[in-house]
Design a protein that fits this description.
The protein is an all-alpha fold. It has 6 helices and no strands.
């Protein structure tokens, strides 16, 4: 049973199995503390419950972050990214033309530019 807070820096080096095991341990300890609290334990349990909840959140955060980074590596060379890995931006920015699409010139525009180029004036 761990009574100290878990540092996130310690969690980054661990592999997924160790993190899952630690998560299960923390959740069982949290359940025990909650039952002791209901049974009429002392008030020091409240701070331990708080610390355990935050530790569970830290472990889950590290698990999710590593999973997302692995997914980013997997989809790096693919044509499409899953929606949750794409940049959020705003709705208007996502629907805006890409640089390639904005730079495309149609045949009609090419002919018009060739036959009627921009006139150059010399200013005295």
């Amino acid at each position: 049973m761990s009574t100290t807070k878990i540092k996130t820096a310690q969690l980054w080096g661990k592999n997924k199995d160790d993190l899952k095991k630690q998560l299960v341990d923390l959740k069982t300890e949290l359940a025990q503390l909650r039952t002791q609290k209901v049974a009429g334990g002392n008030n020091s349990k409240l701070t331990k419950i708080h610390d355990l909840r935050k530790s569970v959140a830290r472990v889950l955060t590290v698990i999710n972050a590593t999973q997302r980074s692995q997914l980013r590596l997997f989809y790096q060379k693919k044509k499409y990214l899953p929606l949750d890995l794409r940049p959020k931006q705003t709705r208007a920015m996502r629907r805006r033309l890409t640089k390639h699409e904005a730079g495309i010139v149609s045949e009609k525009q090419k002919k018009r530019q060739m036959h009627f180029p921009q006139r150059k004036y010399a200013v005295k």
